[in-house]
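Here is the promised in-class demo. Please do not try to memorize the tokens; focus on the logic of going from shape to residues.
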């Protein structure tokens, strides 16, 4: 059950969520789109309450149970197919719906022993014809057009999915920025500068903060990424105007690219998949090709859900798809391969082991991962963002 705070902005947001959930059920009465089912909603003591079907843990919790070592490419395929069907469904509605907050916490397993999943939390979602906010998506999964203040559409969810798939395999966020500026810097480290046309179209405020002109002629403008300000750690200068003096730290490419991050030629992330079937250079090559299409800077060139479902990486091993029954609602969800793969079964057995997050190292990783990904959604509406998390 989701209980919404009683303040007006949150109540208005909750009504939007309810209408969208009703719309999704109207267009998918059989529940084949892997979207969560709303069972009932009511008001209790001035709080809007929404009752959902019962599901299992989210993908971030699944990742945590691997000690942040990631899941196999086989399980990545199963999850990716289902989420892409969700995005395909949302994009083909009469008025396409943008989820606006796709991340591991908002993707839930339907059953502890099955790979069937559902996408939840439409509290930030909107119709593409009714976009209300410019500050959307959790930072780690925020598309570059949103970071740059440009117009956006359903393609921002594809960007988020690409980030999620990398994180689920490597065990850590692909772009773990500490601020909007730093987030853009993390993306630039991997993919280089956005196209000049995108930068030029960005509002003056965002463009001025993140980019600077290095050459300007009558027919050409060249940009570079503006260094990310960070608090100086030096305390030797006692005459400093402020203890929060800023020093510019340039974003310098350090060889971070998808083949290196995913360990294409070295046996997977940190060589953890070396010698494991289905994790050779060929499989990683297909995975990287799909990711590069999902993470294209220009939204109009980003791969669509329908195209992605036909990509060679996802076509592999797709013949054994089955249908499972999920949750207490009895709705059917089409799962790409019914049972969770061997690495996920190991995760299940670890549920009885001591919590890996009890260690100091894992606690530190959770701190940089879990807290940062949620705190930046608590934004003030006067800055164009949605209200902070509406559920109490």
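The designed amino acids, position by position:
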């Amino acid at each position: 059950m989701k209980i919404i705070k009683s303040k007006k902005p949150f109540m208005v947001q909750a009504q939007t969520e309810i209408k969208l959930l009703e719309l999704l059920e109207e267009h998918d009465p059989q529940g084949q789109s892997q979207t969560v089912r709303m069972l009932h909603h009511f008001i209790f003591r001035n709080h809007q309450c929404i009752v959902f079907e019962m599901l299992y843990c989210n993908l971030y919790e699944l990742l945590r149970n691997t000690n942040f070592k990631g899941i196999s490419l086989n399980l990545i395929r199963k999850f990716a197919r289902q989420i892409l069907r969700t995005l395909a469904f949302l994009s083909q509605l009469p008025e396409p719906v943008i989820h606006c907050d796709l991340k591991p916490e908002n993707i839930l397993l339907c059953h502890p022993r099955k790979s069937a999943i559902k996408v939840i939390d439409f509290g930030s979602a909107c119709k593409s014809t009714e976009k209300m906010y410019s500050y959307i998506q959790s930072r780690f999964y925020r598309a570059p057009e949103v970071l740059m203040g440009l117009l956006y559409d359903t393609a921002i969810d594809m960007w988020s999915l690409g980030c999620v798939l990398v994180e689920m395999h490597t065990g850590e966020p692909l772009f773990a920025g500490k601020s909007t500026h730093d987030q853009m810097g993390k993306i630039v480290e991997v993919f280089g500068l956005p196209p000049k046309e995108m930068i030029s179209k960005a509002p003056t405020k965002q463009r001025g903060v993140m980019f600077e002109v290095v050459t300007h002629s009558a027919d050409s403008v060249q940009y570079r990424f503006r260094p990310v300000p960070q608090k100086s750690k030096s305390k030797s200068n006692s005459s400093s105007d402020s203890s929060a003096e800023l020093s510019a730290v340039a974003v310098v490419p350090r060889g971070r690219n998808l083949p290196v991050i995913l360990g294409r030629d070295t046996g997977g992330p940190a060589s953890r998949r070396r010698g494991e079937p289905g994790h050779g250079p060929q499989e990683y090559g297909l995975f990287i090709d799909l990711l590069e299409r999902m993470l294209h800077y220009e939204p109009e060139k980003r791969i669509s859900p329908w195209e992605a479902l036909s990509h060679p990486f996802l076509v592999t091993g797709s013949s054994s798809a089955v249908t499972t029954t999920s949750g207490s609602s009895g709705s059917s969800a089409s799962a790409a391969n019914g049972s969770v793969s061997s690495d996920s079964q190991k995760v299940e057995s670890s549920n009885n082991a001591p919590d890996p997050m009890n260690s100091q190292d894992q606690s530190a990783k959770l701190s940089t991962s879990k807290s940062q990904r949620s705190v930046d959604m608590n934004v003030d509406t006067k800055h164009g963002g949605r209200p902070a998390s509406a559920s109490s």
